[in-house]
Amino acid sequence: MTWGQGKIWYDGKLVDWADATCHVLSHALHYGSSVFEGIRCYEVQGRPCVLRLKDHVRRLFDSSKIYRMEIPYAPEDIERAIRETIRANGLKSCYVRPLVFRGLQVLGLNPLPCPVRCVIAVWSWGRYLGEESAEAGVSVSVSSWRRPAPDTFPTLAKAGGNYLNSQLMKIEALRIGVDEAIALDTAGFVSEGSGENIFVVRDGIVRTPPSSSSILPGITRDCVLRLAEAQGVPVREEAIPREALYVADEIFFSGTAAEIVPIARVDGLPVGSGRRGPITEKIQAAYMDLLSGAAPDAYGWLDPVDGDGGASA
């Protein structure tokens, strides 16, 4: 299935792609009142399996709770709907986008009268940062746009409005000729990419910014932390100064869309050899082996689409 085709789950029903519409005066269009998830389904030895389905759905409900958007379904209903939508579109592997938004009722900064609508779409999507990025890496620049202070809006919520900041970062990066951007937090420490978490390797130790650096604690980020621990690679969550990027042995991004991607250059300077380093490759291989079925799912992260429930916790 390609973009623009197939079925979309919309408030409890599967509808044709072209019929999944909303009114132009929907609250979310004017004020960014939406929350969403990015999830991947992988073909694991011929069987479609959703990566950490329960964890993604839990975060969707957490984001909704932070913004006082009560989802009119139980988490189990959304999990079943995601499986149903994948099956209805006949996909073995795909990207999954659940979206919860405030629809049409009133306009104004009080969103509470507006109905909460729920959508699930799926489509085939390759590597977000390019098919060659997993080995060759990407070029990045430190953005002039910073992540927000903790008391401006909640970065723990995966909310549509939050990503206006990310769009400014991404546009700036593309305009200066690099693939992606890195944001600093309000204290000047490294935060994350426009849509990815970041890891910095120096002397065999992997470091990643903490939640206090205005990051969205990614589910793929958690996979990296646990896979690194299992392989004896030390990982520390700590504040990372900007200059650490320039003297790192390796740097890599993690994210559902990007998966695990090495960073080859930062602000024009090569990172290590300028290609994927050994620790990045080791963690990346462990991640992809699990997703392909070459390694056992020791963590219970893979939820079969044709099953009734998942094992992830």
Summary keywords:
about 325 residues; D-amino Acid Aminotransferase, Chain A, domain 2; single chain; 8-stranded antiparallel sheet; 2 domains; D-amino Acid Aminotransferase, Chain A, domain 1; 17 strands; 7 helices; 9-stranded mixed sheet; alpha+beta
Gyration radius (Cα, Å) is 19 Å
Question: Could you tell me the strand content as a percent range?
Answer: 25-35%
Low-confidence stretches: none
The CATH topology of the largest domain turns out to be D-amino Acid Aminotransferase, Chain A, domain 2
CATH class of the largest domain: Alpha Beta
What separation lies between the terminal Cα atoms?
Answer: 30 Å
- Give the count of structural domains: 2
Descriptive notes:
The chain is α+β, with helices and mostly antiparallel strands and about 325 residues long. It is about 25% helix and about 25% strand. It has two domains: about 5-125, 2-Layer Sandwich (D-amino Acid Aminotransferase, Chain A, domain 1); about 135-290, D-amino Acid Aminotransferase, Chain A, domain 2, CATH 3.20.10. The protein contains seven helices and 17 strands. Helix 6 packs across helix 7 (about 280-290). It is globular and about 55 Å long. The two termini are about 30 Å apart. The mean pLDDT is about 95.
